Amino acid sequence: MVGAAEKSIVPNSTGGISERRNRRKRLQLSCGECRQKKLSCDRKLPCQRCMRSGWPEQCSFEAKTRPPPASNDQSSQQQARRNSEEIRDLQAEIVLLKGLLSKVQPQYEVENGADAFRTTDRAEPSQAVFLSETFKDDQGPADITKFELSDPRERSPHGYYSQHALLHFFREIPQLFPFIKENADEHLKPLGVHLKKEKPVRNDCKPSSPFQEKGILEGLLPCKDDADFLVSFYLDHFEQLHRIIHVPTFKREYGTFWAPGRARHPTMTALVLSMLSLSAFASVSLGETSTPSTYGAMPVQWTSACDEWLRQQSSKNRKLVHYQISCLTYLAKRMNMIRKKSWWKETGALMQNAITDGLHRDPSPTIDTPYMREMKRRIWAVIRELDLQNAFDFGLPTLLHNVDSNVSAPSNIDDDFDEASKELPISKPSNTYTSASYQFHSARSSELRLEVSRRLYSPGLSAALTYEHVLQYTHALTQEIHSLPPWANDEETTDTKPPSLCNLTYAFLQFQLQQCILTIHRPCLQRDDSKYWLSETVSYQISRDILLMNSKLAGLGVQRLTLLREDLLLASLSITRLTLLQSKSSSSIIMANSTSTVELLEQCLPLMEDKYLHCFYGEPWCVLTMYAATMLLKIHVGSETWQTAKAVCAQRFLDLHYRRIGRQQTTQHQDPANQIDVSINQHFPNTAYQSAPSAMSFPASEWMDSNYPDVSIIIGMDCFGLDMELDNTWETWGSTFQD
Predict the structure, then answer these.
(1) Polar residues bias: where (predicted)?
(2) What is the pTM assigned to this prediction?
(3) Which residues does 601 contact at the CB level (< 8 Å), separation at least 6?
(4) Same domain, yes or no, for 239 and 310?
């Protein structure tokens, strides 16, 4: 018997033999024995009795992994007996748990004759809990019926395809996805056409030295004539929106970039490549020069090379040019539909770097020159606008919701100043158009749009958004739209600036305000309460205005620049949803204008087709979704049946698809990408200019500081200073970012 006294015979001091009673220490109870004796115990940890006794190795949780003590045969047998008892207890518990779990049935709903998991529009707290949290000490097995095991997809976080603002329409327009799917199954897949975007091949070649980096970047440059045209297109168009560089200074430096016998600095090369990747696609439609109709995959290679160059730079000495290249590279990705799932993360990372380097604080007049202060304000305005745009596109918060920034708005001035200016020109009136008018007016409404995004996507930082607040914000945003200067109708403005640029700037300022209005009214649509009728009217009018503005920009030849935003597809799907919500017998103005709505969508369809036709990595879903939306409206108004609409939609997409394939095959022989091999072990000469052989260090030039101790390793220096001493530039910009 365990714990019983035993007798032993030992010799005594007189030489005789005597008996001595030896009392053995009682073995402590293990966790299994605790359960058998109905004592409180947790199987996952040693019980309190075991812990107090200092024998946690006797706990059943560790008994299976520890070998039994080998003190003597009797203790080994006792330990083996306890182990077998523990195994039986565990097996009995497993059987009990299996029986309980078998009673819990997953919830299904039957849709279209097939079982489908029940999903919700928004993520709710999961009803499934771990069993260790389910069974409490005072809870019996019968209480398990209170809990349900939900679909794992409901417990997982929302991904890109369920979070983006555009993709919510597949849930808000129930007919949209079935129409596209049936169309693809019946008409596209039998012909071998699959709705899958072509993914660019990433270049994993990484330079191991500045000389290899220099060779890779220069090997990607096109011929000088094409580069000159693309750079000029960027300066004349994109710089009217996002003010990223100082145009006069850049033109002076670019003039020496192609000078024979002078080595190019990788910083300047990366800056030029980022501009080329942004303007290569948008410049095709103008036909102002003999530039090749497309560069194919070159924008992908250019952006990839710029990304790799940025990754190689140290974060300790970030200069102005780093942010300029980062902003240009991101805009090029939006223009060419490259890695769209990462856009929100990219602007968020860029925002983090800017906050780390203090760009969210107004530059000090005692440290920075007037030129540098204005350039910092412009860069911060660009980063702020891009991140706020992604907040509305992706339906996700931005760091701006928690950042206290006191940066002044950029001045409404042209680049009539330089690095040596003692003071900036006086900001022009708001109704006067300048190359910085977009940033100037965008900053005026940024606080209002930021407050709307905070109420929508960061509810923990503000009160809930009620319908009264929706109406108040609608009024404020509408007032901002009406306060925009009508530059396009101003004869004095159109004499100095092309009407297309004035209309483009006005359109972008209008789009970002109209996007806010559509966003705050979107949850109010399709509600039973009659007080929300105003949301339908406002959303319909705003969507129609966006489509009309896109059609106007297409007539001016600058519609491709609107690909920096997603307003065309957003407005098309919004007006489709609003029309489908109306009954066919409705007398509402939305249903009364349904025929004109279809005609308006037909006018905008070529704009979406152009995007898919000319973009090398075009997105087939965008154009096919717009086809489907147009056909659904025709079905709703009774001009098409479901089957005929599918056939017409499929035929139109197939014609566009085969045109795109034929166009790519025709331009493959002209594509500069076929003659460029990106290899880190070779240096490829340019077709129009062969650079000087690399030396041990880059020779000092007019735009580099020859007094700097080691010019060859200065990759991140500010390359804006052809006509001045760069010592001052290093002091003013570097003093802000010193560790």
Answers:
(1) 71-81
(2) 0.71
(3) 547, 572, 575, 576, 626, 629, 630, 633
(4) yes
